[in-house]
Amino acid sequence: MRNLNASAPDKPFFLYYVPGGSHSPHQPTQEWIDKFKGKFDMGWEKLREQIFENQKKLGVIPANTQLTPWPDGQAEYAGAKLPKWDSLSDTEKKMYARQAEVFAAYTAYTDYEIGRVIDEVQKQGKLDNTLIIYIDGDNGTSAEGSLYGTFNTLTAYNGLLNEPEVKPVKVMNLLHYNDWGSDKTYPHMAVQWAWAFDTPFKWTKQVASHFGGTRQGLAISWPGHIKDPGGIRTQFHHVIDIVPTILEAAGIQAPDEVNGIKQKPIEGVSMLYTFDSANANAPSKRDTQYFEMASNRAIYHDGWIAATTPPAPVWELGTGTMPPPDQYKWELYHIADDYSEFNDLAAKMPDKLKEMQALFQQEAGKYQVFPLDNRAFVRLLTPRPSAIAGKTDFTYTGVNPGIPVGNAPSILNKDYTITAEVTIPSGGAEGVIATLGGRFGGYALMLSPGASWLLSSSLFKHIELGLLIFGLLLIFIGTAGRWRKRFGYTFVLVAVVGLILSFATEVFHIGRGRPVFVYNLLDLERFRWEGLSSLDEGKHTIVFDFKYNGPGPGKGGTGVLSVDGKEVARKTIEHTIPLLMSIDETFDIGLDTRSPVDFNYEVPFAFTGTIDKLNYKLGPSQLSAEDQQKAAAMLAAARD
Fold first, then answer.
1. Which helix (H) or strand (E) holds 88?
2. 242 burial type by CB count under 10 A (0-12 exposed, 13-18 middle, 19+ buried)
3. What is the 8-class DSSP label of residue 335?
4. What percent of the chain is helix, strand and coil (3-state, nearest 5)?
5. Whole-number Å distance between alpha carbons of 394 and 511
6. 125 Cβ contact partners less than 8 Å away, ≥ 6 residues apart
7. Residues 6 or more apart from 50 whose CB is under 8 A from it?
8. What is the pLDDT of residues 563-613, one digit of tens each?
9. 3-state secondary structure of 396
10. Given this model, what pLDDT does residue 492 score?
11. pLDDT tens column, 29-61
12. Minimal CA–CA distance to 245: which of 228, 266, 229?
C-alpha cells in the first residue's frame, strides 16, 4: 500500500486481505494468549449465555431471539450429544479452557492485524473515501477438532476421533498445555467450543442448512459516505452480494466480455441501498437464496427458511452411513420473527414447507446444484486431470524442493520402495535427500548430522556457558565454603568438557553421514531406521523398502534400510498415517523447507552430496471402497 501510494497517490486501490485466522491451526503470539488467561473457565454453556446476552445488549440480534438448546440427544440434532461442562474433571476443564483461550487470542490477534491495515489507510489520508467491508470467521466455527480438541489437527483429519484411538492424542494434549498455540502445536479446539461460538444458532461449519454453519457478522465502513456510523441493518444478504456492492460504490459496470470471452452474469445484489439511514428498515433486495453442502440444504425466501436436518454429527467428518438425500427430514422457520431458527413450524405448516421445498428445487436446478450427492466429501474421489494420476514409478535428479503434496508420490496404505543413488564428496556428507511433511507428520530419508547437531547447538552452548559462569561465581565470589567451592569446580569441569565435546564434534564430524529413514507418526511417535556407519567418499545406493500389512488404512508394516545392497536396519511398526500426511508442507528433494520431520536437524539441512537419481516405486493402494470414502471425507474437511 505504501509503495502504491508513493508511486501513484491519486490512483484508486483495491485490497483483498485474507489472513489465516481464525481457521485452524490456531497459532497466535504469546502476548495475545496471555490476554485471555482464565476468560473461559466458566465453560461452554455459560459462555453461550454470556455471548447471547451481549448480542442483545449490542443490538446485533433482535430482542425476542431465543437461545437454541444445547445438543443432548434431541431428534432435531440427529441424536447428537455434546458433554456438559459440569461433567468434566478439573484437569479436563483446564485443558479445554486453554483451547478456547488460544482460539480467542487468534481471533483477537487477527482483528488487531486487520486494524493495522486500516490504520495505514488513515495515515495516508484516504480513510474517508475508502470503502471497508469486514467479515471475520470460518463459515460457522469449525467442529473439526473432534470432541476433545487436538494439539495436532492432523490427528482428527486422520480419523483419531473417538475412544480408544484418541487416547494418545489426549495425553499429548496435556503435555502441550503450556505451549498450546505455539509452533510446537498445530492445534484445534473441541466441538463444544465451536458450538458455543456459533451462538445463538444451531450447528457449525460444514452445515449449510443452518445459520450456525453459514451466518457471519458483517461490518461496513465508508466515513465520507455513510452518514449513520454504528447503525445496524437487518436486511438479509449473502456473500455473493459483496462484489455488486463494490461495483456500484465505484461506479463500475460489470463487463459483458473479458478478452473476447462472454462473461456469466453476476448473481449478487448490491447492498449500497442500506448505507442510507433512510433505508435502515427498507425491505431486503435479496428475496431468495439457496444453500447446499454435501446434501445439507436450505432455501430462504422473504423471511422464511426451510432447511434439512443433518442426519449425522459433522464432527464425525462424514465417516458414518448417510440416508438417501430424498429421505432427509425438513424443518421450517419464519426467521422474520424467529432469528435463531428456534421454532420449527414444519409440522404446523406443511403447505408452506412444500412451497419452500418446491422453490429449492427450482433454485437448485437454476444454479446447477443437482445431482445432490450426500456421500459427504467422497465426491473428491472422482477422477480429475492430474499429471501423476495412476503413476506408480517416479524418478528425480538433483535438488527439487517445494513439490505440492498432490504431485508427490503417496506412500500411504501401500508397499513402497525409495531408492537414492548419491555421490559422497571427500570428507563425507549430510543432509536431507527426500522428505514430505514436517513436525506434525511426514517422513525423511537423509544422512545424519551427527552428534554435533546437539553439542554445537546454541541451546547447548548457552547451557554450558551458564554452568561455567555459575561455577566461577561459586568459586571466586563471596565467602564460599568448601562444599560450595567443590560444587563450583564441578560446574566448571562439566562446562569445559561440554565445550570441548562441542568443538571436537564440529571439527571431526562425529556420527555424521549415517543413512537414516525417519517416519513421523503425527507427532505422536517417531520411528527411525539408522545405519551404524557413515558413507565414505564415492557413489552409493540407499534403499528404503516398506512392506505394508494391509488391507485397511493406517496399518503397520516392516521397513528395511539398506546401503549398496547390504541391510543396515530393519524395524516393524504397528501403525502408519492412514489418510493425510500434510496440508501445508511440501515434498522436498535435496533439502527440507518449512519444518523438520525429526528433532535432530534444523531446516533447511541441505544435502551436501549429489543426488544422481531418486526413484519411488509404489505398490497398489490397500484401501477398500469404504475406506476410500472415509478418506475422501477426511481430506475434504482438512482442505476446507
1. none
2. middle
3. T
4. 30, 20, 50
5. 31
6. none
7. 42
8. 999 999 999 999 999 988 999 999 999 999 999 999 999 999 999 999 999
9. strand
10. 81
11. 999 999 999 999 999 999 999 999 999 999 999
12. 266
Residues 6+ apart with CB under 8 A from 538: 423, 424
Round to whole Å and give the CA distance between 242 and 152: 35
- Set of cell numbers at residue 189: 479446539
**Cβ(299)–Cβ(288) under 8 Å?**
yes
Report the C-alpha gap between 575 and 600 in whole angstroms: 22
Whole-number Å distance between alpha carbons of 104 and 525: 30
What sign does the dihedral 579-583-586-591 (CA atoms) show? negative
User: How far apart (Å, rounded) are the C-alpha atoms in residues 486 and 492?
Assistant: 10
Residue 592 DSSP code: -
Contact 590, 606 (CB under 8 A): yes
How many beta carbons lie within 10 A of that of residue 437, not counting itself? 30
Which DSSP string corresponds to 223-281?
A: TTT-S-TT--------GGGHHHHHHHHHT-PPPSEETTEEPPPP-----GGGGSGGGTT
Q: How far is Cα 390 from Cα 561, in angstroms, rounded to an integer?
A: 26
Farthest-apart Cα atoms in the chain, separation: 96
Identify the burial level of 215 via C-beta atoms within 10 angstroms of its C-beta, where 0-12 means exposed, 13-18 middle and 19 or more buried. middle
Residue 631 has pLDDT above 80, yes or no: no
CB 580 within 8 A of CB 548: no
Judge contact between 55 and 66, C-beta under 8 A: no
**Residues 551/619, Cβ–Cβ less than 8 Å:** no
- CA dist 552 and 335 (Å) reads 46
Q: Please report, as a single letter, which amino acid is at residue 567.
A: E
Closest alpha carbon to 570 in 616, 522, 512, 531:
531
**Global pTM value:** 0.87
What cell was used for 478? Answer: 563471596
| Three cell numbers written together for 616 | 519411488
C-alpha cell at 362: 427450482
